[in-house]
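Hi both,

Apologies for the delay on this - the queue was longer than expected. I finally got the zinc ion-bound model through. Below you'll find the protein sequence and the ligand SMILES exactly as submitted, and right after that the C-alpha cells for the full complex including the ligand.
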Amino acid sequence: MVSIETVFTRAKLADGSQKEIGVSGGRIVSIEPAGSSAPAGRTVDLAGALVVPGFVEGHIHLDTSFYGDAWIPHKPCTNGFDVHERVAFQAENIAQAAPMDERARNQLDLCIANGSTQMRSHVMVDGSVGLRSLETILKVRDEYRDLIDIQLVAFPQSGILKSPGTPELLDEAVRLGADLVGGLDPGSFDRDVKGHLDVVFGVAERHGVDIDIHLHDAGTLGLFTIEEICARTAALGMGGHVAVSHAYGLGDLAQDAARKAADLIAASGVSIMTNAPGNHNFPPVALLRRAGVTVFSGSDNIRDSWWPYGDGDMLRRAEIIGYRSGFYTDEELQAAFDVVTAAGAKALRLEGYSIEIGARADFVTLQAAHVPEAVVATPKGRKVFKAGKLVAENGAVIR
Ligand SMILES: [Zn+2]
C-alpha cells in the first residue's frame, strides 16, 4: 500500500455510508471502509459529518458589494425599476465606500466560510471605470488562490453599444485576465440584440473564452433574446460554453412554450443561472432540468446598490430555490442541492469536481443526516477544505 498524506475518518457520504477519504497532493486518492485506509501522515476525524463537494458560487459581483462595510440604505428608483438609474446609484455609493479590494475580501471570506470553493464573479467593465475594477479584483483573486478558484467575467454593466469604447474594453479585459465575456440585456438596454451579441460572441470567438450574459428582460423580449443566444451558440459549436444569467422571461411562459424553450436551450447547450430572486418570475428549474438544461446558481448581489439581501451561503440558496420552486420531495430537494453543486460545476466546466477518487479534495462538512435535510436545515458549524487543507471553520476563514 502507498502511504497517503491525510486520511479523513468517519466521513458520511451522500449515500449514507461512513468512509475514510484519503487525500494526497490536493486530490482524493482513496475512499475506503473504516479502518482499511493505507497508512497516512495525518488523520482528521470528521466525526460522522456529511461530506459534500464545495459549493459552486456561480454568479456574484465582487466589485460592488458593501458587505462588511458601512450599511448603505437601499434607494428605490424614482419611477419603477430602471437599470440605468440603478447603475448611477451604484456609482454614487461606490464613491463613498471602503476600497474595492477590502470589500471584495470581505465578501470572499463570507462565501468561503459558508463552503464555496469555486466561484464565478462578474466585474464591471465600462467607459467610466475602464479596467480599474478588473485590475483590483485580479489582484484579490491572486491573494485567494489557495482558498477558492475564481472565474472572472468582463461585465459591460453600462451596455456595450451605448457605452462608447466598451467593445474594445471587453477585448482588453480578456487580454488582462478575465476568463469570460459578459453581456447585459441586449434588447432593453442597448436596444439592438444583434449588435450586442455580435460584440459578445465576437470577443468570445477571438479569444476562445466562454460567455455569461445578464438577461433580465421579461416575456417575449426575454425569450427572443434567449432564442438568438441559442442559435449563435449552436452555430458556433459553443454548447457548454455559454450561460444566460437570470433569464426571467422563461418564468413568464405558459407550460407548452416553456417546454419548447427548454428543449431549444438543452439542444444548444446553453446553461441557465437563477438565484430565485424575491419578487420576480424566475426560470422553471424542474422543467428545465427535466429537458436536460444545466441550471446553476449564485448569490448575485450581496448588500449592494441593487438590494440589501444575500448571505453568501449557497446551501441557503438551494433552500430558497427549492422553497420558491415548490420542491418538497427528497428527490426535489436533492435537485435544489445539485443546482448549487454538480450542475454549477458543469456550467463552470470545472475539472475534478466530486467526492470520488481522482477528484479535487474540495469539500464541506455538514451536520445533517443527508442532503435533503441539509437543504432545509442549512446547518452552520461547517468545516471547509480546499485541496485537502482546512480553510474555514465555524463561519470564519482560517489564516
Ligand atoms: Zn449579476
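Main takeaway for now: The chain has two domains: 4-53+353-397, 55-347.

I'll put the files on the shared drive as well.

H.
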